[in-house]
C-alpha cells in the first residue's frame, strides 16, 4: 500500500470525525426527539408529560447543538457536500428545519399557560419535531446508499444542479432507513425516561423500549438484505487520496449490483459492525425489560454506533454518489476543504470536543436522580 | 445553468426575512445575559435576596426570548447550503470554519449551561450557579464574535486566496481571518448594541412597574443597574460605529458613498448630506441639505482627504471588469487543461479582478464577446440601492443618539432616592421598540451596502444562489413568513402576559397547573389502563 500524504490523512481523520458527530447527533438529539415522539403515549396526564419534559429539560438545548455542529462541521470540512446535499434536498430540508424550530418553542412555551388546549397543541408540535427530524435523518442516510440525481455544471466555478424532485428523496428504501432511525431514537428516549422517571410513566416507557429495540433490528435486517441486492457504487482502479479537492475531475466510478458489499468482501472484519448492532440492541431490550435502563441506554448508544458504522463501512469513500453522472460523485477524496482548513479545524476540535464532553457530563451529573411531580410543581422555571 | 433573477431575488428576500427575524431576538439575549449575571453577582456577593428575585424574574423573560433566538438561528445556518449552494462551495473552505468554531466554542457552552441556569437553582450552590450564569453570558457573546468574524469575511475578505484548480477561495491565514478589522469593530459595535437593547428593555419594563406602583423594590434596582449599563454601552456603540465607518470608508467605498448619498467626488473638506432624496436613475440627489466639513471629519478623521463619489467609483468598476475578463478566460482554460502554464500566468496577473468578470457574465455569458454597453450595465450593478442605505443609516444613527439621551435621563432618574411618578416613567415603556428598530436598520445598512457581492469584490450575489425553481422559493418564503409571524405573535403574547403578571410570590408557579386532570387521554389510547 502506498504511503498516504498528510492531506489524505487529514481527509480520513475528518471523515472519522464526521462519523463521530453524526453518531453523537443521533444518540443525544435522537434521545430527546424520541421522548417527543412518545410523549403523548407515555404521558397520559399533564403531570406525567411535564415530568417527561423536565427529565430532558435541562439538556435538550445543549444536545441540540450536536445537530448545529454537524451542519457547521460539514460546511467547514466538506463545503461541496454541504452546498450540494442541502440544496438538492431542499424541500426535505425545509420540512426538517420547520419541524425543528417548533422544538425550542414547544419546550419553553408549553407549560407557560394553564390551558389544556394550549398544552395539547404544543404536545403535538413536540411530537412532530421529534418524529419528523429523525425520519429525515434516517432517510438522508438511506439515500446515500440509493444515490442522488445531481451533477455539476461549469460556470467558471462549480455549480451543482439537482435533477430529481423532492419526492425522489422519499423512496421506499429511504423511508425504511428513516423508520430504523425513528425506532432507535424512540428506544433511547424511552430508556432515558426509565432512568429518571417513576410509576406509570416508567412502566409505559419500559413497554416502549421493549418494542422499539426489536422493531429497529427487524427493520435494520430488511434494509441489510435490500442493500445486498441493490446497485452500489465502486471505484474502478485507484484514486489518489491526496488529490486536489475539485468536484469537476472525471472520476472512474461505476454502478454495479451488490457494489456496497465490496468493502465487506475486501475486509471481512467489517462484519463486526452489524454484529455489534445486533448484540447491543438485543441486550439493551433485554435489560430494559429487566429494568436495568442505565446499562441499556449505553448499549443502545453502541447500537447506534453499529448502525451508522455499518453504513459508513459500506459507502467509504463515497459521501454523496451521483446516479445521474457517477463521475461527479462526491467522495472523501474530492469534496473536502483545503489541508490548511482541515488542520486548523482539527486543532479546534481536539481542544473543544473533550471540553464539551466534560461539561456536558457534569451537567447530567448535577441533574441526576428521579424527577418527581413535587419538584416540577415547585420549580418556578420548570417546563 | 445559473439561477434566474427571480430566484436570486426571492433567495435574497428569504435570507433577509429570516435574518431580520433572528436579529430581533439575538441582541436582547446578548445584553440580558450580562444583566442577569450582574444581578446574580450582587446577590452572591451581598447575599441580598432581592437580587436573586431580580435574576429569576428577568431570567423568565430571557428564556422566552432565548427559545426563539435558538429556533430562528437553526434555520439560518442551513440556509447557506439550501439557498446559496454555489456560495457554500465557493467560500465554505473559509466561511465554514468560523461557523463550526462558533458551535464548538460558544453555542455549545451557552446551550448546555442555559438548562442548568434555568433549572439548576436548587441543585447548585450559589457560586456554581453564578458561574453557570456567567458562562451563558460568555457563550452567547462569543457566539456573536464568531458569527461576525464569518460576516467580516463577507464584508472585507482577509486570509484567503482563490485556487484556480479547485475553483474556490481557500484559507491562507486563520489569523488574518480572525483579526479582520471589520469583524472586530463590528463585533464590539453589535454586541454593545445588544447591551443597549437589553438595558432599554429592562428600563422600560421597570419604569412601567414604577408608574403603576408595583414591585417597587425590584423595579427600582433593576432600572438603576440597567440604566448605568445602558449609558456606558451606548457611548461604546457610538464610538465603535464611528470606527466602523472609518474602516468601511477605506475598504468599502461604494457602501460609504451610498450611505452618504455622495454621487460626485467631494474635494476635501467634504460636506455631509443631512437629508437628501437620492435618485438611482438620475444618479444625483433630487434634494439635499448639506452641512459643510462634516463628512471629511466623520469618515476620514481629517480635513484634507477627498471622498470619492458613486459616479467615479462606477467608472473604476468598469475598468476592473475589463481587467477581470482575461482572468475568467484563463480560468476556463485551466479547467480544460490544468497544465496550461500560459493560462496560469495570465490568471495570476488578473486574478484580483476575477469577481468583477463574474458580474459581467450575467449580461455576457461569453465574456470575451462583451460589448461596452454590457460592461456599463455590470458596472452599474456595483452600486447598491442608495436610498435604502442613505435612510437606514440615518435612522440607525438618529435612534442611537436618541437612546443615549434616553438612557442619560434614565440614569438621572434612578439616582433619585424616592421614586416619584414623572413623565419619564410614562414615556419609558414606549421606548422599548427603538433599540430593536435600530439593530434592524444597522443590519440593513451593513448587508444591503455589501451588494452586489456576497463576498466583497470576490463573488457576486447573483451567482451565489442555488439553482432552484421559482415555485420552490415562493413556497419556502411563504412558509417562513407565516411560521415566523405566528411565533412572534405567541412570543409577544407570552412576554406581555409575564410582564403584567410580574415577579411571583416565592413558591407560586408561573404557568399554572393542570395536575391530576386526565385531560389528555387520546380516544385511541383511552381504553388502555395501567
UniProtKB/TrEMBL annotation, chain A:
Annotated protein name in UniProt: Cytochrome d ubiquinol oxidase subunit II
Keywords of the record: Cell membrane, Electron transport, Heme, Iron, Membrane, Metal-binding, Transmembrane, Transmembrane helix, Transport
Bilayer disposition of the protein: Multi-pass membrane protein
Any one biological process term the GO annotation gives: aerobic electron transport chain
Entry similarity comment: Belongs to the cytochrome ubiquinol oxidase subunit 2 family.
GO cellular component: cytochrome complex; plasma membrane
InterPro entries hit by this protein: Cyt-d_oxidase_su2 (IPR003317)
Organism: Acidihalobacter yilgarnensis
UniProtKB/TrEMBL annotation, chain B:
Keyword Ribonucleoprotein in record: no
Membrane topology: Multi-pass membrane protein
InterPro entries: Cyt-d_ubiquinol_oxidase_su_1
GO molecular function, one term: heme binding
Biological processes annotated in GO: aerobic electron transport chain
Pfam families assigned: Cyt_bd_oxida_I
Protein localization: Cell inner membrane
Principal location listed in the UniProt entry: membrane
The keyword Lyase belongs to this UniProt entry's keyword annotation: no
Protein origin, superkingdom: Bacteria
Transmembrane stretches, start-end: 20-45, 57-76, 96-120, 132-154, 192-211, 223-247, 388-415, 427-446, 470-490
GO cellular component: cytochrome complex; plasma membrane
Keywords attached to this entry: Cell inner membrane, Cell membrane, Electron transport, Heme, Iron, Membrane, Metal-binding, Transmembrane, Transmembrane helix, Transport
Family per similarity comment: Belongs to the cytochrome ubiquinol oxidase subunit 1 family.
Protein name as it appears in the record: Cytochrome d terminal oxidase subunit 1
Amino acid at each position: 500500500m502506498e504511503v498516504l500524504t498528510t492531506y489524505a490523512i487529514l481527509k480520513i481523520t475528518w471523515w472519522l470525525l464526521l462519523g463521530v458527530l453524526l453518531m453523537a447527533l443521533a444518540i443525544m438529539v435522537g434521545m430527546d426527539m424520541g421522548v417527543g415522539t412518545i410523549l403523548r403515549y407515555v404521558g397520559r396526564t399533564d403531570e406525567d408529560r411535564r415530568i417527561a419534559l423536565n427529565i430532558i429539560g435541562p439538556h435538550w438545548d445543549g444536545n441540540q447543538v450536536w445537530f448545529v455542529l454537524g451542519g457547521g462541521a460539514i460546511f467547514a470540512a466538506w463545503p461541496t457536500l454541504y452546498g450540494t446535499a442541502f440544496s438538492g434536498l431542499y424541500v426535505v430540508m425545509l420540512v426538517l428545519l420547520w419541524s425543528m424550530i417548533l422544538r425550542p418553542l414547544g419546550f419553553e412555551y408549553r407549560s407557560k399557560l394553564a390551558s389544556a388546549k394550549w398544552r395539547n397543541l404544543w404536545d403535538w408540535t413536540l411530537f412532530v419535531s421529534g418524529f419528523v427530524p429523525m425520519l429525515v435523518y434516517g432517510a438522508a442516510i438511506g439515500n446515500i446508499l440509493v444515490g442522488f440525481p445531481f451533477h455539476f455544471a461549469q460556470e467558471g466555478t462549480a455549480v451543482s444542479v439537482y435533477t430529481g424532485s423532492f419526492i425522489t428523496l422519499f423512496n421506499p428504501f429511504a423511508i425504511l432507513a428513516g423508520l430504523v432511525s425513528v425506532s432507535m431514537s424512540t428506544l433511547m428516549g424511552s430508556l432515558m425516561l426509565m432512568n429518571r422517571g417513576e410509576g406509570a410513566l416508567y412502566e409505559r416507557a419500559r413497554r416502549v423500549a421493549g418494542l422499539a429495540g426489536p422493531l429497529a433490528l427487524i427493520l435494520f435486517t430488511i434494509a441489510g438484505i435490500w442493500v445486498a441486492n441493490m446497485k452500489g457504487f465502486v471505484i474502478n482502479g485507484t484514486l489518489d487520496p491526496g488529490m486536489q479537492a475539485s468536484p469537476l475531475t472525471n472520476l472512474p466510478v461505476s454502478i454495479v449490483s451488490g457494489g456496497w458489499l465490496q468493502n465487506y468482501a475486501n475486509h471481512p472484519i467489517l462484519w463486526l459492525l452489524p454484529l455489534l448492532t445486533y448484540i447491543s440492541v438485543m441486550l439493551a431490550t433485554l435489560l430494559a425489560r429487566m429494568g436495568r435502563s442505565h446499562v441499556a441506554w449505553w448499549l443502545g448508544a453502541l447500537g447506534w454506533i453499529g448502525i451508522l458504522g455499518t453504513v459508513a463501512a459500506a459507502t467509504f469513500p463515497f459521501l454523496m454518489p451521483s446516479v445521474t453522472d457517477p463521475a461527479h460523485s462526491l467522495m472523501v477524496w474530492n469534496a473536502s476543504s483545503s489541508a490548511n482548513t482541515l488542520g486548523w479545524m482539527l486543532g479546534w476540535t481536539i481542544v473543544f470536543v473533550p471540553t464539551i464532553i466534560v461539561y456536558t457530563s457534569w451537567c447530567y451529573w448535577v441533574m441526576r436522580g428521579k424527577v418527581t411531580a413535587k419538584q416540577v410543581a415547585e420549580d418556578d422555571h420548570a417546563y | 445553468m445559473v439561477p434566474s433573477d427571480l430566484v436570486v431575488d426571492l433567495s435574497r428576500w428569504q435570507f433577509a426575512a429570516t435574518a431580520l427575524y433572528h436579529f430581533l431576538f439575538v441582541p436582547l439575549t446578548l445584553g440580558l445575559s450580562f444583566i442577569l449575571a450582574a444581578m446574580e453577582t450582587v446577590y452572591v456577593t451581598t447575599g441580598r435576596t432581592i437580587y436573586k428575585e431580580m435574576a429569576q424574574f428577568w431570567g423568565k423573560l430571557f428564556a422566552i426570548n432565548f427559545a426563539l433566538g435558538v429556533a430562528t438561528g437553526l434555520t439560518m445556518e442551513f440556509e447557506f447550503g439550501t439557498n446559496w449552494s454555489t456560495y457554500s462551495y465557493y467560500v465554505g473552505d473559509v466561511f465554514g470554519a468560523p461557523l463550526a468554531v462558533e458551535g464548538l466554542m460558544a453555542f455549545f457552552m451557552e446551550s448546555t449551561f442555559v438548562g442548568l441556569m434555568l433549572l439548576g437553582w436548587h441543585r447548585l450552590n450559589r457560586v456554581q450557579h453564578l458561574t453557570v450564569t456567567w458562562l451563558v453570558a460568555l457563550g452567547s457573546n462569543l457566539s456573536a464574535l464568531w458569527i461576525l468574524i464569518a460576516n467580516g469575511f463577507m464584508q472585507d475578505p482577509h486570509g484567503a486566496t482563490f485556487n484556480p484548480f479547485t475553483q474556490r477561495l481557500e484559507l491562507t491565514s486563520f489569523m488574518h481571518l480572525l483579526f479582520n478589522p471589520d469583524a472586530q469593530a463590528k463585533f464590539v459595535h453589535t454586541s454593545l448594541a445588544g447591551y443597549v437593547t437589553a438595558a432599554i428593555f429592562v428600563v422600560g419594563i421597570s419604569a412601567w412597574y414604577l408608574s403603576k406602583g408595583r414591585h417597587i423594590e425590584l423595579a427600582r434596582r433593576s432600572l438603576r443597574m440597567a440604566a448605568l449599563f445602558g449609558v456606558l454601552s451606548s457611548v461604546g456603540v457610538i464610538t465603535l460605529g464611528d470606527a466602523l465607518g472609518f474602516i468601511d470608508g477605506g475598504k468599502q467605498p461604494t457602501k460609504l458613498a451610498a450611505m452618504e448619498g455622495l454621487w460626485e467626488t467631494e474635494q476635501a473638506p467634504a460636506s455631509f448630506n443631512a437629508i437628501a432624496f437620492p435618485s438611482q436613475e438620475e444618479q444625483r440627489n433630487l434634494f439635499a441639505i448639506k452641512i459643510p466639513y462634516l463628512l471629511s471629519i466623520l469618515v476620514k478623521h481629517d480635513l484634507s482627504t477627498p471622498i470619492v463619489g458613486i459616479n467615479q467609483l462606477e467608472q473604476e468598476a468598469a475598468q476592473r471588469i475589463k481587467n477581470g475578463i482575461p482572468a475568467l478566460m484563463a480560468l476556463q482554460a485551466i479547467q480544460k487543461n490544468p497544465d496550461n502554464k500560459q493560462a496560469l500566468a495570465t490568471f495570476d496577473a488578473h486574478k484580483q479582478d476575477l469577481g468583477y468578470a463574474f458580474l459581467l457574465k450575467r449580461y455576457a455569458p461569453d465574456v470575451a464577446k462583451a460589448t461596452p454597453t454590457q460592461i456599463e450595465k455590470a458596472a452599474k450593478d456595483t452600486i447598491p440601492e442608495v436610498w435604502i442605505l442613505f435612510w437606514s443609516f440615518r435612522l440607525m444613527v438618529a435612534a442611537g443618539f436618541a437612546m443615549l439621551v434616553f438612557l442619560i435621563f434614565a440614569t438621572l432618574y434612578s439616582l433619585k432616592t424616592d421614586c416619584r411618578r414623572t413623565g419619564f416613567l410614562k414615556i419609558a415603556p414606549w421606548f422599548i421598540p427603538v433599540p430593536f428598530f435600530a439593530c434592524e436598520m444597522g443590519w440593513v445598512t451593513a448587508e444591503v451596502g455589501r451588494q452586489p457581492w456576497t463576498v466583497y469584490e470576490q463573488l457576486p450575489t447573483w451567482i451565489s444562489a442555488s439553482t432552484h425553481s421559482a415555485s420552490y422559493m415562493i413556497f419556502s418564503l411563504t412558509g417562513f413568513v407565516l411560521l415566523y409571524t405566528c411565533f412572534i405573535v405567541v412570543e409577544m403574547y407570552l412576554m406581555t402576559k409575564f410582564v403584567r403578571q410580574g415577579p411571583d410570590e416565592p413558591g407560586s408557579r408561573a404557568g399554572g397547573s393542570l395536575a391530576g386532570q386526565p385531560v389528555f387521554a387520546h380516544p385511541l389510547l383511552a381504553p388502555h389502563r395501567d
